Amino acid sequence: MSDPDPEFDEGGPEYCAHTSYDSGPAHESYPKTGEGATGVEARVWDALRGIEDPEMPVSVVDLGLVYGVDVSDGHATVRFTLTYTGCPARDYLLSDVERAARRVEGVDSADVALVWSPPWTVEMVTDAGRESLREFGVSV
Q1: Is residue 110 within 8 Å of 47, Cβ to Cβ?
Q2: Under DSSP, is residue 64 helix (H, G, I), strand (E, B) or coil?
Q3: Count of alpha carbons within 13 Å of 40, Cβ hemisphere only?
Q4: Residues 40, 71 contacting (CB under 8 angstroms)
Q5: Distance of alpha carbon 114 from alpha carbon 107, whole angstroms
Q6: What are residue 77's DSSP bridge partners?
């Protein structure tokens, strides 16, 4: 596995709060899309693109929810966030992400590291995600 990104806090938040979909500060290294990934890691990114948010027909990658993918010795770790800490689809999404990674050829095991830092904002949605949201009727 590559060195951990010091920007990530894998601990949970201290309290449960709703994160609004208003614009927030843009983070220079987001969204992560897997661009430049190769081999098994690229295949994991491709598998994650096939997972849609349960409320909107938009890939979790295009929503900017995937903060990173690391594959080492057949084990995939997906760093993943949610649009807000009280997301009712939390377990559903985490399970889908883990299953998608595990099904990739070259991955023997997988886990999802739920991260909260940096906090997700609508600024992390890709251009393709924004277009899908607009087609769905969400103004972004």
Answers
A1: no
A2: coil
A3: 21
A4: yes
A5: 19
A6: 70, 111
**Closest CA relative to residue 116, chosen from 41, 1, 17, 3:** 17
% of the chain with per-residue pLDDT over 90: 70
d(C-alpha 82, C-alpha 64), whole Å: 9
**DSSP code for 17:** -
The Cβ-side half-sphere exposure at 26, using a 13 Å CA radius, reads: 6
Q: Which residues are paired to 114 by β-bridges? A: 80
- Give the helix/strand (H/E) hosting 67: strand 66-72
User: Strand, coil or helix: what is 59?
Assistant: strand
Is residue 26 very low, low, confident or very high in pLDDT (cuts 50, 70, 90)? low
Q: pTM to 2 decimals?
A: 0.79
102: enclosing H helix or E strand? helix 90-102
The CATH homologous superfamily for domain 39-128 is: Fe-S cluster assembly (FSCA) (3.30.300.130)
- Domain chopping of the chain, boundaries: 39-128
